């Protein structure tokens, strides 16, 4: 299968839609919404679209911070494995709603897991 995960998911429009739905879920979930209290969500959504496009094998326009740098200050506020699990849960549910295959959802979860230690500063 030579097609990238990015194109299998449906390209830029699908990734953009997925990120919008994903953050709606995150902000409705009180286990994680407090981390985003002071965050400019328009900027956050833009960065996340760029980042996910890159890790899914689409065009690389991501110019944000590394995962380690981007989350370091959240560790002091208690960011831990449970929160990363919740991110993966909401991302998976979002992709499922959009009709993405179980196999591709597993691949996305694996990508998210591959940055877990960086996000958590380990
Ligand atoms: C799979 C794991 C994750 C990925 C791929 C990811 C991705 C990103 C990206 C691309 C940014 C932008 C970095 C920048 O500012 O340049 C970011 C920032 C941020 N992330 Fe994550 N993230 C992950 C896990 C989490 C978790 C578990 C939480 C909390 C529940 C979280 C909360 C935040 C917040 C609040 C910011 C904004 C920080 C700020 O601007 O001060 N992230 N993340």
From TrEMBL:
Xref: PROSITE patterns: GLOBIN_FAM_2
Cofactor needs: heme
Cofactor note: Binds 1 heme group per subunit.
Molecular function GO labels: heme binding; metal ion binding; oxygen binding; oxygen carrier activity
CDD domains: TrHb1_N
Pfam family, one: Bac_globin
InterPro entries: Globin-like_sf (IPR009050), Globin/Proto (IPR012292), Globin_bac-like_CS (IPR019795), Hemoglobin_trunc (IPR001486), Hemoglobin_trunc_I (IPR016339)
Sequence positions that bind heme: 71
Keywords attached to this entry: Heme, Iron, Metal-binding, Oxygen transport, Transport
Family recorded in the similarity comment: Belongs to the truncated hemoglobin family. Group I subfamily.
Annotated protein name in UniProt: Group 1 truncated hemoglobin
Protein's organism: Fluoribacter gormanii
Gene: glbN
């Amino acid at each position: 299968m030579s097609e990238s995960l990015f194109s299998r998911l449906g390209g830029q429009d699908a990734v953009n839609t997925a990120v919008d739905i994903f953050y709606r879920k995150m902000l409705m979930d009180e286990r994680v919404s407090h981390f985003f209290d002071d965050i400019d969500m328009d900027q956050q959504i833009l960065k996340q679209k760029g980042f996910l496009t890159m890790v899914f094998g689409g065009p690389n326009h991501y110019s944000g911070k590394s995962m380690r740098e981007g989350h370091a200050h959240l560790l002091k506020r208690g960011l831990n494995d449970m929160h990363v699990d919740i991110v993966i849960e909401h991302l998976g549910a979002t992709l499922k709603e959009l009709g993405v295959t179980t196999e591709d959802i597993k691949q996305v979860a694996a990508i998210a897991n591959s940055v877990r230690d960086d996000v958590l500063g380990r």
